[in-house]
Queue: 2 jobs
Job 1
Amino acid sequence: MREERNVKTVVFDLDGTLYDKRGLAGRMVRRLWWCLPLLAAERLARRNAHYVQFASEEEFFAFFFASMARGHWWTASIAEKWYHLVYMPAMVRLISKTCKPRPEALRLLDECSQKGLQTAVYSDYGCVVQKLEALGIDPKQFDLLVSAPELGALKPSEHCARQVLEMLGAEARTTLFVGDRDDKDGASARAVGAQFLLLAPEN
Ligand SMILES: [Mg+2]
């Protein structure tokens, strides 16, 4: 955080930022080969939900699972069960077995702790606590754990990013968003006038 100014709060993205997620998508496909059409439907539903702001988590997921079921034999209710009972648990298990925290992220977390900065994890997916525990990162060290869908949208929703600041009681100008995606995390920061540090994916 050498170039960032007067930072009091640091908002970390999770996937790809706190851990190296290279190869995870391919491993998910190999693990869940028996439900590839559902995996594909999940990707499409995410794309459909981009840039749509919902009033609540319930409305977001109602749209999301209806979108997953559109044109398929399965219902939104089946998609919902698959997502919560198969897809997310498989992702957490694979993170636990095959992913490591990014050293630069751990250094930043350490720096935050030493400087007494307020910290948060703001993810585009759920299961934030389970993923942090799978990585051996203590969830209790953060002041806030939240996902964008809980706030009714996906990144880079301005409304959600603003809610994160409000939940933290933080000012945008003294808040630093840290993420691996400029189009999601960087855009979230810019939408509310916060600072941004790109932890670009390793090659
Ligand atoms: Mg990310």
Job 2
Amino acid sequence: MEQHGRPDPTSSAEGRRLRLLALEAFAREGRAPTLAELARSTAAPPGQVRELLGDLADAHLLVLDGAGDSIRMAHPFAASPMGFVVTPLGEGDDRRWWGGCAWDSFGISAALGLDVRVDTTCPHCSASLSVPAGPATPPPEHLVVRFPRPAPEWWDDVVATCSAIRMFCSRDHADRWTAAHAPGRGRVVSAVTVWDLARDWYADRLDPDFRRPTREHQQALLDERGLDGDFWRLPPGPRREDDA
Ligand SMILES: [Zn+2]
């Protein structure tokens, strides 16, 4: 995962613009823009757009499909169903988004500064969970989120990781599900903590001047919420050329 010497794609105007266009399309339409649409918007050759998308994916700012020519995720947005639907609460706002996981679903609210409803099901009892959340509205306190694997493994297969970061109706149900399906694996965290983390983690994703956050910044966001120890230790991962 080390990317020493690779330029940070958000250090160039082209990289920032392409990333923002992708995020804006998700925000506006709930879907990923196609490579052809991005090429048209940027007036750049498709080959060049594809290469830049690859750089953004290497920097963990996008996730591409296997063939590398379409966008699978642009956190907190996802291009196809992953267990969560995010619906704005504002009257007349008919947008909908696929939440990539519990964390990303709160992240969509944070990135858009929007009150939403997050719909999912408890993996243990299959109860429908319809969760109000917003920039100033935490989710109900009885809900929890289970993280399936430690932070160093998140990006080994990030789609699988996100797909498995699920919300449970109670800590008891998360513990019983874990005992049945993955004994001793993962961590269970209050949904309020995950919501609070998402507020800082994702708040600036639609800023035109967004720059890829450093590992140290993101580690501090976890630490501040008591998410510390080896399980939450982010790997060195992709590096920016200008990392100190
Ligand atoms: Zn349940």
